[in-house]
Design brief:
By secondary structure, this protein is an all-beta fold. Helices cover 0% and strands 54% of the residues. The protein is built from no helices and 12 strands. Strand 9 and strand 10 form a beta hairpin. The chain starts with a strand and ends with a strand. About 23% of the residues have low confidence.
Length: 125
């Protein structure tokens, strides 16, 4: 299948996002200073699994954590779909992505930051 990628910044969007949801960056929405530091040790996507109907939309949020399980902000997120013919990206900003069901099937949604990835499953019926 084909693959779709969107590069995002875990941030408050100060630029516009194009209609495909790619390349959105901005300023950290939680403020700077005093936050957790260190490299990304894990990435979590919520919801971890979801089912939508053809033509419906659903969102997902990626969160990055350090080795002490502290939330990291301001990290670049790269979104990948295992099959963009089943689900398409309709919008993306901050650390979230909006998907639309195109045809029946199941895809793996992956969010990667600093070489560490987390996955979720999206089923379209």
């Amino acid at each position: 299948g084909s693959q779709s990628v969107a590069n995002l910044m875990l941030a408050l969007d100060t630029t516009s996002t194009d209609s495909t949801g790619t390349d959105s960056t901005g300023t950290d929405s939680t403020g700077s200073g005093g936050g957790a530091t260190g490299p990304v040790a894990s990435v979590s996507i919520s919801p971890h699994a979801q089912t939508i109907s053809v033509g419906d939309s659903a969102g997902a949020v990626a969160m990055t954590y350090n080795a002490q399980a502290q939330l990291l902000t301001g990290r670049t997120i790269t979104w990948t779909l295992s099959d963009s013919s089943v689900v398409s990206v309709t919008a993306a900003a901050y650390n979230w992505i909006l998907l639309r069901g195109a045809r029946s099937g199941t895809v793996t949604l992956t969010a990667t930051s600093e070489g560490v990835g987390g996955t979720a499953t999206v089923t379209v019926r």
